[in-house]
Amino acid sequence: MPVRAFFKWAARNRIVLYNPASEIELPKVEHRLPKPPLTAAEAEQVLAMPDLKSPIGVRDRAMLEVLYSTGIRRAELAHLAVFDLDVARRTLLIRQGKGSKDRMVPIGERALAWVDRYLSPSTPGRRRR
Predict the structure, then answer these.
(1) Options 3.40.47.10, 2.40.50.140, 2.60.40.10, 1.10.443.10; which CATH number does 40-119 get?
(2) Which are the contacts of 83, defined by CB distance < 8 A and separation ≥ 6?
(3) Among candidates 46, 49, 69, 65, which has minimal Cα distance to 57?
(4) pLDDT tier, 129 (very low <50, low <70, confident <90, very high otherwise)
(5) HEC profile for the chain?
(6) Where are the domains of the chain?
(7) Tell me: the pLDDT tens digits for 3-44?
């Protein structure tokens, strides 16, 4: 491709009389599907990794559940606020996501339960606000 671009530039700037690379046919690039996602058993293994005896472990589990349930990006998760979650509608508002656009995504019951458990003042080690 760089050779074709060079000759196109050279012909446009009259360094060469014509573009000899214009007739070259490049082989088609094979588009493969991405690797398959985790199986359900593998996903459960990942979700079970945090230590649920500590508030950090409960937080991590809630974050993993939200990521798995919604498919949002890591950076989007980092910018979430509590009021972005609409429990009644089971949706999550993503503010300024990819392309600086806001969007609503559905969130599953299981992820909501873990977020509720994390936000609950009765979580061991959590301070009341």
Answers:
(1) 1.10.443.10
(2) none
(3) 49
(4) very low
(5) CHHHHHHHHHHHCCCCCCCHHHHCCCCCCCCCCCCCCCCHHHHHHHHCCCCCCCHHHHHHHHHHHHHHHHCCCHHHHHCCCHHHEECCCCEEEECCCHHHCCEEEECCHHHHHHHHHHHCCCCCCCCCC
(6) 40-119
(7) 888 888 998 998 988 888 888 887 888 888 888 888 999 999
Neighbouring CB atoms inside 10 A of 107's CB total: 21
HSE-up of residue 11 (Cα within 13 Å, Cβ side): 12
Collapsing DSSP to helix, strand or coil, 93 comes out as strand
CA distance 122 to 111: 18
Quick one: tokens of 46? 């990942």
Distance between CA 114 and CA 17 in Å, rounded?
69
**3-state secondary structure at position 27:** coil
DSSP character at residue 96: S
Tokens of 34: 């991405």
